[in-house]
Amino acid sequence: DISIRELFDLAVKVVGAEAVVTVAAERVRPTGSEVIRLLSDPSVARELTGWEPTVSLEDGLRRTAEFVRSNLHRFKVSTYNI
What we know:
The protein has 3 helices and no strands.
């Protein structure tokens, strides 16, 4: 599993950007929450279809970033609030 923070850090590393996480206190999971972690489990896909990942998360993020950079003309970049 990977936390959202770890995913953020990996994405920042892959694209070579500098970014800071801003935490909104009202969105932090309460201490007494009954859900501690939400995890994805690909075992059902594996069992039903024989699917196995062939690309690592880091490589997939890198490939996605390269695609976006090469296809900026397909995106409405000027409309994003960055």
